[in-house]
Each structure stands twice: as structure tokens, then as C-alpha cells.
Design goal:
The chain is α/β, with parallel strands linked by helices. It folds into 2 domains: 119 residues, Leucine-rich repeat, LRR (right-handed beta-alpha superhelix) (Alpha-Beta Horseshoe), CATH 3.80.10.10; 103 residues, Leucine-rich repeat, LRR (right-handed beta-alpha superhelix). Helices cover 12% and strands 14% of the residues. It has a 9-stranded parallel β-sheet. The longest helix has 14 residues. The chain is elongated and about 65 Å long. The N and C termini lie far apart (56 Å). One of its GO terms (cellular component) is cytoplasm.
Length: 226
């Protein structure tokens, strides 16, 4: 893409606060955006070939509320990303991320986080620090178990479809706001599904099709009707 086309996008973004440049084959984050660190509220660079985010620049978008980098080639996120104290929506589907920065819990305004189609092997413990998080999508990763820390999550919806989960901590029933739990196409035996999900949790939608048991067996369990 030519410089003049990029310049036109930058000029428009200066007025609107929205910078959107999808499907352009970009291999790096446009450095021209550093002129707009105090303007932008939305950045969408999905469907490109970006391999990394520039640490020095990315942490300066202090008004940014929405950042979409779906379908890129990111392998790590810089710690500086976690300086974005107003960020409410972060979408990083279909990248190559194996973990989140240790400082990720500092994204205190985050409400929606999408990390589908990455290479995460565990539930990131940093998510438990995010008090305003409503929805987390961790589908299509390589997560094998759900640990005790899950009980501290504040989310309303947790999507863990298409992982390799065979074990779930009983603490999942302690999630104070969890209403929707998606566990389709995992490796769960019926005996590994904590009974307390049915009897003692806030969960009202439990999606477990495509595991190692028949759904009709689940319906026979005590607490299912509730």
C-alpha cells in the first residue's frame, strides 16, 4: 500500500478517532499512528501479517477503547500494551500467542477479550485481576485443564470450546457472575464435570456437546433441571 493512501487514512482517523486498515498485507504496525496517540479510540488492523507491536508506541494510546488485531502473526504482546487503562475491547483471534504479559491484569477497564485460535496451553491467571471483564473467548486453543483460580474470574461468559480440556476445578461453581459456560468439543468425561455446576452455580447456559459422553446422560444428573 502506498504512503499517500496510508496518509489519507491517518488524516481521516485524526478527525474520527477511528483507524481501520484491514486486509492490506501490512507486515508491521503503522508507525505513522504515533502522531495520533492522543486521538484514537479505535484501532482495527485485522487480517494483515503483523508479527509484533512496537512497545514504545503501543502504550501511548491513552484514550484507546477498542483494539482489534485478528488474523495476524503475533507471537508475543509487549508489557507496554498493559498501559492502555481505558481499553474495553481487545480482540486477538487467530494469532500465535502462547501466553499473556505478566502485567495483563493492569488493563483495568477491559470488558471483552477474544483470544480464539491461538496457542494458549493454560487459563491465563492474569484474567482473575480484571474486575470488569464480562466476556472471554479462549476457544480453539490448547488448554487441557481448568485450575482452581477459575473461581476468581469475574466474567459473565466464558468460551472454552474446542480445547483439550479433560479436568475442571470444582471452584468454577464459585464464579460470582458466570452465566454462560461453553465447553463444546473438549475431552471431558461426564464424571469430570463438577456436580456443583448444576446445583450450586450461577450458570444458566452450559454448552457441552461434542465431549466424551452423551448429552442425555447429563440430563439424568441431579440438579440438571435447576
Amino acid at each position: 500500500m502506498g504512503n499517500s493512501a496510508l496518509r489519507a487514512h491517518v488524516e481521516t482517523a485524526q478527525k474520527t478517532g477511528v483507524f481501520q486498515l484491514k486486509d492490506r498485507g501490512l507486515t508491521e504496525f503503522p508507525l505513522e499512528l504515533q502522531k495520533l496517540t492522543s486521538n484514537l479510540r479505535t484501532i482495527d488492523l485485522s487480517n494483515n501479517k503483523i508479527e509484533s507491536l512496537p512497545p514504545v508506541i503501543i502504550g501511548k494510546f491513552t484514550l484507546l477503547k477498542s483494539l482489534s488485531l485478528n488474523n495476524n502473526k503475533l507471537t508475543v504482546l509487549p508489557d507496554e500494551l498493559c498501559n492502555l487503562k481505558k481499553l474495553e475491547m481487545l480482540s486477538l483471534n487467530n494469532n500465535h500467542l502462547r501466553e499473556l504479559p505478566s502485567t495483563f491484569g493492569q488493563l483495568s477497564a477491559l470488558k471483552t477479550l477474544s483470544l480464539s485460535g491461538n496457542q494458549l496451553r493454560a487459563l491465563p491467571p492474569q484474567l482473575c485481576s480484571l474486575q470488569h471483564l464480562d466476556m472471554v473467548d479462549l476457544s480453539k486453543n490448547q488448554i487441557r485443564s481448568i485450575p482452581d483460580i477459575v473461581g476468581e474470574l469475574q466474567v459473565i461468559e466464558l468460551n472454552l470450546n474446542q480445547n483439550q480440556i479433560s479436568q475442571i476445578s470444582v471452584k468454577i461453581s464459585c464464579c460470582p457472575r458466570l452465566k454462560v459456560l461453553r465447553l463444546e468439543e473438549n475431552c471431558l468425561e461426564l464424571s469430570m464435570l463438577p456436580q456443583s455446576i448444576l446445583s450450586d452455580s450461577q450458570i444458566c447456559l452450559l454448552a457441552v456437546e461434542g465431549n466424551l459422553f452423551e448429552i442425555k446422560k447429563l440430563r439424568e444428573l441431579e440438579g440438571y433441571e435447576k
